[in-house]
């Protein structure tokens, strides 16, 4: 079954995860005003078509609204936490330029993203299911007693041998 | 196990030497609460394992020390972590970081405003040029229309003049008689042939 739509690659996880813009915490709403015809709006149209899905995937809690054919010139408007509104004029710009511009003013920088990724990685001190932790049991660590199900314990460590010894020494 | 022991050790040491008749609580296990006790187990009384008092005393001391140290370590690590988290969120470091972020935000907004200004100027220029072009076009159109009108007027004037000229040769009621006389006096012969250049070639004789 073929993919649906004009550029169905926009719907693939691989494409979405390659999104560059991760907004800072205060950004809550993004509004894109553009026109469906006209060369000046071309960059904004491509931005809305190609980049907005990536942005929404990376920022699921930011509301993104698109307005078409309301104003003569295209622009982006961001509404921040403290009521501040940031206007970005995009008339005549290429869509890659727009992305770079937005990333510079309101996106998290590479350093911050790396630090966050590092923090999120699994804590080796936690033991639990493979999905959340690195190891499930201490027996998986090198240098520790292995799991008796995989490697039989030496006779002296087993409970029944010890019990037998204790019984034979007492009785 | 040790909790059960500690309950009994609180009593004086002499009582421990006797067989301990403490009834340990029953645990449910396989049977439900309505199932009767097994016939072989009706008179059974479970006793906890015997305790050596000297060993008990020594063990108790050691365990108090051990648990004290472990608790102290745990509390210390917990406090360290909490302090770090507090510092990160509401400490002096966080304030400095917040201030720095605010400054960066301000500078980025300023840069954004500059970009907007630059684009605004370009846009104004473009709009102005477009307006000028539009004006020029309108003027040209108006000019062309005016010229067309003038030419029309000229043509009409020429027509009028030619008509006026022709009017002199018209036959009116006054010259009627005169013109009739003239026409009768001068008979015209229209029977002639012309060649390709338009020159008269031959004429028939008037009859």
UniProtKB/TrEMBL annotation, chain A:
Instruction: Show the GO cellular component annotation of the record.
Output: mitochondrial inner membrane; ribonucleoprotein complex; ribosome
**Location within or outside the cell:** Mitochondrion
Specify the domain of life of the species encoding this protein: Eukaryota
- Answer whether the UniProt record assigns the keyword Ribosomal protein to this protein: yes
Query: What residue stretches are annotated with the Ribosomal protein/NADH dehydrogenase domain?
Result: 36-109
User: Which chain regions cross the lipid bilayer?
Assistant: none
Question: Where would you say this protein principally sits, based on its record?
Answer: mitochondrion
What the entry lists under InterPro entries is as follows: Ribosomal_mL43/mS25/NADH_DH, Ribosomal_mS25/mL61, Thioredoxin-like_sf
Q: SMART domains under this entry?
A: L51_S25_CI-B8
Keywords recorded for this protein, A-Z: Mitochondrion, Ribonucleoprotein, Ribosomal protein
* Family (UniProt): Belongs to the mitochondrion-specific ribosomal protein mS25 family.
**Protein name, as recorded:** Small ribosomal subunit protein mS25
Automatic annotation (TrEMBL), chain B:
| Keyword hit for RNA-binding | no
Q: Which residues form a coiled coil?
A: 112-166
Q: Where in the cell is it found?
A: Mitochondrion
Keywords on this record?
Coiled coil, Mitochondrion, Ribonucleoprotein, Ribosomal protein, Transit peptide
Give TM segment ranges: none
Checking InterPro entries in the record gives: Ribosomal_mS26
Any one cellular-component term (Gene Ontology): ribonucleoprotein complex
PANTHER family xrefs = 28S RIBOSOMAL PROTEIN S26, MITOCHONDRIAL, SMALL RIBOSOMAL SUBUNIT PROTEIN MS26
The family assignment reads:
Belongs to the mitochondrion-specific ribosomal protein mS26 family.
Q: What is this protein called?
A: Small ribosomal subunit protein mS26
Source taxonomy lineage? Eukaryota, Metazoa, Chordata, Craniata, Vertebrata
